């Protein structure tokens, strides 16, 4: 982009000089550029050639011309090169010797002005000698001529900037004859039997040439009979599985000459053409569906025969089904965690060979026999995506829907000396996570800010914490391992309440410290199984809704698990805590619920 600033009362301008350029091919072209200004005074745009400078004037306050608009926005200006030839003003343009392709100038400015110029270019040029055009008009494509043959080749030809000097007629690469005057034609007498590809090549007075599109002609012996053809592969009724690769083969013969080509079709769609025996084509990637295949043979005399249709079916393979049955989606555990991943897998077409268990793209292990399980031990903190991949004996495989699992570090936790909140802090990788849990009257507030000092000296920058659905406030920050972090909170006491601050009693945590969760300051949660009622009876096969209430006075309930005896039936991670036990057979059962809080302790199941 070029930018020009004009000072009031001063001349202004610029020019782009170049070695002499031959722009003769742009006689009907234009100089185009993008232009932006609000200046209302006079200026001009010019070029320079062997005849000197020539200008287009844009007078002060003049009407818009050539697309020039002075509104401060970008506009395209297009000036025909012919407009620069102004003999009445003593200005001429010599396009074959252009020495400055763009100039911009103005008389003393009536005020300060700014001009912006971009994308300068010339358009509308033509090739130095555009080639002629030519079309072979006779004989018609795929014409059949019977011996003895005399073929008349006819062509039309034209030249936009000159004359056509000759038209040559070819059979393949062999010159048959030449015509120098319109109408252009040549008679090929005594053409022998065969298949021929004919073209016409036009030459203009500048030596440029163009060859026409080819025309195929069949010269047939008298009494020529049609060929025979049959599709030998695949067989009628054949079945394939995706992704299918199907080889089509055909047998074709001709009693009176030879086979020119065999076309393979799916319905009316041409798949491919084979010109040599053995005639075949491999159809790769055929999608699922039912198809009617055929082969069409053309002999050297131009006669055509289509084979009988062969019907085939392409179907998607029968693949295994697989799903993870444990852990449940959204399960949250405390690190270091040990869990059993379980999956079911079936296949109606082939036995299951193996089930592989993955965390993301990392294979954890596999099981070759049902029930399919994998014991994953010592799992560290993090968010995990679990999948199971079932492979059948026939080689087909399916991957299950991913199950989200979260393993949390056991936080280091304590209750503030004023009893208004409980905090938790733990390290996961390079991040340190802080949780502010309001207690008592503090609950319900909408603000919590944590102030953290990293190391033993320095300021305490503040960070706004995010309130979650449980009413707690959280914040995560990357802090170097081993750093002693000192922190305190500013928080709102209840909805719309006053703000309290604990700067006088900051807490401390060394990054990387792993707590055991056995602190006596953590109060276990409470839990009660509210449904079904004791001694309730049901009719088999029964569906029984289990429900429980759970609470934690110094933290949050992370999950409630439902048991029948020592067998875990399921779990719920959010209130209301419930589980539906389906297809229960006749019998007597002892049902319990356990609750786990955010610091790890589990309320023992009732005896």
Question: Mind explaining what this structure looks like?
Answer:
With 607 residues, the protein is mostly beta strands. The chain folds into six domains: 2-123, Galactose-binding lectin (Jelly Rolls); 133-220, Immunoglobulins (Immunoglobulin-like), CATH 2.60.40.10; 228-315, Immunoglobulins (Immunoglobulin-like), CATH 2.60.40; 321-403, Immunoglobulin-like (Sandwich), CATH 2.60.40; 412-510, Immunoglobulin-like, CATH 2.60.40.10; 526-597, Immunoglobulin-like (Sandwich), CATH 2.60.40. The protein is built from no helices and 51 strands.
Major sheet: size, sense and barrel closure?
6 strands, mixed
| N→C terminal distance | 85 Å
Q: Helix tally?
A: 0
User: Average pLDDT, to the nearest integer?
Assistant: 91
Strand content: over 45%
CATH-level-2 architecture of the largest domain: Sandwich
Number of domains: 6
Structural class category: mainly beta
Q: How would you sum up the global shape?
A: flat
Please give the share of residues in helix: under 10%
Beta-strand segment tally: 51
Low-confidence stretches: 601-607
- The CATH superfamily of the largest domain is known as Galactose-binding lectin
CATH class of the largest domain: Mainly Beta
**Rg over alpha carbons:** 44 Å
CATH topology of the largest domain: Jelly Rolls
């Amino acid at each position: 982009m070029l930018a020009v600033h004009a000072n009031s009362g001063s001349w202004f301008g610029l020019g782009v000089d170049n070695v002499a350029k031959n722009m003769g091919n742009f006689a009907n072209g234009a100089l185009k550029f993008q232009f932006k200004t609000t200046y209302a005074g006079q200026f001009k745009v010019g070029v320079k050639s062997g005849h000197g400078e020539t200008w287009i004037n844009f007078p002060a306050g003049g009407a818009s011309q050539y697309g020039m608009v002075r509104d401060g926005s970008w506009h395209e200006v297009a000036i025909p090169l012919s407009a620069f030839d102004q003999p009445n003003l003593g200005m001429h343009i010599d396009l074959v010797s252009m020495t400055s392709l763009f100039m911009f100038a103005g008389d003393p400015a009536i005020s300060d002005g700014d001009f912006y110029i971009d994308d300068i270019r010339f358009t509308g040029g033509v090739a130095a000698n555009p080639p002629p055009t030519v079309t072979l008009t006779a004989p018609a494509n795929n014409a059949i001529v019977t011996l003895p043959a005399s073929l008349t080749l006819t062509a039309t030809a034209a030249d936009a900037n000159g004359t056509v000097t000759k038209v040559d007629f070819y059979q393949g690469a062999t010159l048959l004859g030449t015509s120098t005057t319109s109408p252009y034609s040549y008679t090929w007498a005594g053409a022998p039997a065969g298949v021929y590809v004919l073209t016409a090549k036009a030459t203009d007075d500048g030596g440029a040439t163009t060859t026409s599109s080819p025309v195929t002609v069949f010269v047939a012996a008298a009494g020529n009979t049609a060929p025979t053809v049959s599709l030998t592969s695949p067989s009628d009724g054949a079945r394939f599985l995706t992704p299918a690769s199907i080889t089509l083969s055909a047998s074709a013969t001709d009693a009176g000459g030879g086979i020119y080509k065999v076309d393979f079709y799916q319905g009316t769609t041409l798949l491919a053409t084979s010109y040599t025996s053995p005639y075949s084509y491999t159809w790769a990637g055929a999608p699922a569906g039912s198809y009617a295949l055929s082969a069409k043979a053309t002999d050297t005399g131009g006669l055509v025969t289509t084979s009988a249709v062969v019907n085939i079916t392409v179907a998607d393979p029968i693949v295994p089904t697989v799903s993870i049955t444990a852990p449940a989606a959204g399960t949250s555990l405390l690190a270091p965690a040990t869990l059993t991943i379980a999956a079911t897998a079936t296949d109606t077409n082939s036995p299951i060979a193996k089930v592989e268990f993955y965390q993301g793209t990392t294979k954890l292990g596999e099981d070759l026999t049902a029930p399919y399980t994998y014991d994953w031990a010592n799992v560290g903190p993090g968010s995990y995506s679990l999948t199971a991949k079932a492979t059948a004996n026939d080689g087909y495989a399916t991957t299950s829907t991913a199950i989200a699992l979260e393993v949390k570090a056991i936080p280091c936790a304590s209750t503030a000396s004023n009893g208004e909140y409980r905090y938790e802090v733990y390290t996961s990788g390079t991040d340190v996570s802080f949780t502010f849990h309001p207690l008592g009257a503090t609950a319900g507030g909408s603000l919590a800010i944590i102030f953290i000092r990293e190391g033993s000296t320095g300021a305490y920058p503040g960070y706004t914490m995010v309130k979650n659905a449980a009413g707690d406030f959280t914040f995560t920050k990357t802090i170097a391992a081993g750093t002693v972090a000192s922190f305190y909170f500013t928080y709102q006491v209840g909805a719309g309440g006053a703000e309290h601050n604990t700067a006088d009693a900051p807490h401390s945590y060394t990054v990387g410290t792993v707590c055991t969760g056995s602190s006596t300051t953590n109060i276990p949660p409470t839990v009660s199984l509210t449904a079904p009622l004791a001694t309730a009876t049901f009719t088999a096969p029964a569906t029984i809704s289990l429900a429980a209430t759970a609470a934690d006075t110094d933290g949050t309930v992370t999950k409630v698990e439902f048991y029948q005896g020592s067998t875990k039936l399921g779990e719920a991670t959010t209130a209301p805590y419930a589980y539906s036990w389906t297809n229960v057979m006749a019998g007597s059962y002892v049902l319990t619920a356990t609750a786990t809080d955010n610091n790890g302790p589990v309320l023992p199941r009732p005896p």
